[in-house]
Automatic annotation (TrEMBL):
Pfam families with a match to the protein in the record: CcmH
Keywords: Heme, Iron, Membrane, Metal-binding, Signal, Transmembrane, Transmembrane helix
Full protein name: Cytochrome c-type biogenesis protein
Record keyword Iron present: yes
Homology family: Belongs to the CcmH/CycL/Ccl2/NrfF family.
Role played: Possible subunit of a heme lyase.
Transmembrane segments: 100-120
GO molecular function: metal ion binding
Organism, scientific name: Edaphobacter aggregans
UniProt-listed InterPro entries: CcmH/CycL/Ccl2/NrfF_N, CcmH/CycL/NrfF/Ccl2_sf
C-alpha cells in the first residue's frame, strides 16, 4: 500500500514539474496575448487583424527580441509598459498601485450587496410598524367592521 502511495506521489510531483516545462512558442503566445496592440484597434497584440497596422509587426518583433534576451515574463511586460504606457497591458500586473484594479470591483460589489441587504432590512422594519392614517384599527380580530365601512364608502 505504501508503495502505491509513493508511486502516486511521484506521478503527481512529475506532473507539477512538467507543467512549467513548455516550449518557447507557448510562452511567446501567452505573453503576446497579455498585451494589446497600440494602433488603437484595441485588439490583443498577436490577434491584431487591423489592415495595414503600423504597430503590430514592430511590437511582435520587439517581443521576440525581448524573449530571445532571456527576460522573465514580468520583465518583458514591464519593458513594454515603460515604452508604450500601461495601456499596452491587457490586464494590470499584480503589485503596487495596480492591485486597486483587481480589488476595487470586488470591494464595490461586496459593499453594494451589503448596502442593498441593509436597505431592504430597514424597509421591512419600517413597513411592519406603519399604521394607515385616518383609518381606525378594527376592533374585532377578523376586521369585519373595517370591511363594512369600506363597502359603505365605495358604494355608488
Amino acid at each position: 500500500m505504501l508503495k502505491r502511495w509513493m508511486q502516486a506521489g511521484m506521478v503527481a510531483l512529475l506532473g507539477v514539474v512538467m507543467l512549467g516545462a513548455g516550449d518557447s512558442s507557448s510562452r511567446f503566445n501567452r505573453v503576446g496575448h497579455e498585451m494589446i496592440c497600440v494602433c488603437s484597434c484595441n485588439q490583443i497584440l498577436l490577434e491584431c487583424n487591423h489592415v495595414g497596422c503600423p504597430d503590430s509587426d514592430r511590437m511582435i518583433g520587439e517581443l521576440r527580441e525581448q524573449m530571445a534576451g532571456g527576460g522573465s515574463d514580468t520583465a518583458i511586460m514591464n519593458w513594454f509598459a515603460a515604452k508604450y504606457g500601461p495601456t499596452v497591458l491587457a490586464a494590470p500586473i499584480r503589485g503596487g498601485f495596480d492591485n486597486v484594479a483587481w480589488i476595487a470591483p470586488l470591494a464595490v460589489f461586496l459593499l453594494a450587496t451589503v448596502g442593498t441587504g441593509f436597505l431592504i432590512r430597514v424597509w421591512k422594519l419600517r413597513s411592519g410598524a406603519r399604521v394607515p392614517v385616518g383609518i381606525p384599527i378594527a376592533h374585532d380580530a377578523s376586521g369585519n367592521e373595517l370591511r363594512e365601512r369600506i363597502r359603505r364608502e365605495t358604494e355608488y
